[in-house]
Amino acid sequence: MKKGLVMEGGAMRGIFTCGVIDVLMENGIEFDSAVGVSAGATFGLNFKSKQIGRPLRYNKTYCNDKRYCSVRSLIKTGDLYNVSFCYGTLPYELDVWDVDTFYNNPMDFFCVATDINTGKAVYHNCINREKSRDGQDIKWIRASASMPMFSRPVEIDGGLYLDGGMADSIPLRFMESQKCDRILVIETQPADYVKKPQKYMGIIKLVLGKYPNMIKTMKDRYKMYNDEKAYIREKEKAGEVFVIRPSVAPNINPTEKNPDELQRVYEMGRAEAIKSLEGLKQYLA
Description:
Residues 5-176 form the PNPLA domain. GO terms for molecular function: hydrolase activity. The protein has 285 residues and is of the alpha/beta class. It has helices at residues 14-26, 39-42, 45-48, 54-62, 71-77, 83-94, 99-104, 136-144, 172-177, 201-207, 212-219, 221-237, 259-284; strands spanning 3-7, 33-37, 108-115, 121-125, 154-156, 159-163, 182-186, 242-244. Strands 1, 2, 3, 4, 5, 6, 7 and 8 form an 8-stranded mixed sheet that branches. Helix 1 crosses helix 13 and helix 4 packs antiparallel against helix 13.
């Protein structure tokens, strides 16, 4: 039996996922394969490196640090979340990502990015230790979380990539393609959440005018997202997947700078995971 883990993004809603995966780690629950999208990748990688509490800790510590996230960084570099700090200084010097454990852990860890030329999702397996710093794997993780309009496209091997959530927000179908028999999906919105059409298509067309396929993907994203939510509910009702999600909307700012709010949403994730723990263990058995 092969077990899979799917982690939705959603900017700082991803702190909910942090609470869930910490409970999973505390209870020794493991998977053969995981896929993370956007914040589900940047925060979820700590499941593979087995670092309980790390993403909550560094977000609470640096959420008000201008080196981490600021309009100044957006104006100067084109990235709201400063690349050199978020993907260099922080994980390799200040709150160290355990690269050894990450790469020694046999679990596959996929991150999802969107190819801005095709508008399609790309799934990268972070398995190359030689490219862990300033290389291919960390670039793919960064691309997965690079929000359109607030980040520069990430160039990898001649391609350009942005936030994976634009093309595949909750990649259950991808995890099914990995031949997983038991799949846990961590969502960051309640079951009845319905995404609405993008309000700012005029600005998006202006900024991404050279990339018509990406524009179409962003225009149609709400349809894709709602279809994925419906598919997950269908599979959940049939007992084919297990889902942990918020019972109420987290209602957290995408770039939240209040540590208390981050803690609140983290505790929501922990509470839902603890409530679901025995059922999950039975499902995975």
